[in-house]
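Sample entry (315 residues):
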Amino acid sequence: MIRIWTHLRGLWPGYGILAPLPFFAEDAWLAYSDRFHWENAAVLVVAVLLFVTGPRTQRLFVGIYPLGLVGVLYGMMRVVEDVGVSAKTVHLCDLRSCELALFGLTVGGRRMTLQDWFQAHPSTALDVACAIPYATFIFVCIGCAVWLYFRDYVAMLRFTWSFFALNVIGFATYHLYPAAPPWYYHAHGCQVDMLARASEGPNLARVDALVGVPYFAGMYGRASDVFGAMPSLHVAYPLLVAIEGWATFGPVLRVLAVAFYVAMCFAAVYLDHHWVLDVVVGSLYCAAVSFVAHRLTRRAAAPACLAREPVRSTP
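Predicted structure, serialized as tokens:
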């Protein structure tokens, strides 16, 4: 035990030794509340292995640490799921009215949203195509982090901490401005039901039925925010991938990154999960977080550049 402790203190001097505590605390709480799942155990095992192995895995642990904190944050959201959210504070038909005014279309003399039109004209091909970005976005984000780990470690840190910041700001907005998604309006109208549960929506339910696996039903069945449509973090994530990966991506990856972002924007609307307003605000959130992160990175790098500047003697 002494050798193990000496090894860990050599890797993690100071308060760094406490870094895994959030993961242990979250899993203990989930187990106590009977919400512990296999993926929670998998994350904990990976975190511990990276934490204890050596200098190389230490560097990777530090790089992906913010992604792990997002998982902890998401798991603990149930503690505050009702804070600021009530039948009086939820934005439903007022938000839909703004959507109609800004992005609505007139069909047969009737004003409707894009979501209304898509729900009236379902397509199995589009259901499946739009399910792909929704099913893979987290893997794309992890893949981007791993890519940046080998290409540009500073960019990786900026990406993962920006990802964390986006989620913190997004989750805070869910409680400061609780907003019902389009699928909720189509299922419940303008009546706010605080007992309603999160849903994958009819489109993704059809995909689950098509493949015979309740993948999306399971995913959204664990969600704590029914009224968390604004902003669309689903849209913010791929935009962050495109922004932070741009400098290291070649032409093909740049095209794929932009295409993935555009596909996610369309999917968010077609799948009845978000208003166009949610998509716009999610993109603006990402742009703002990225701008601040890049400014902070440049500011932190400036003293190091000045320190490397050779001192010139005056004649």
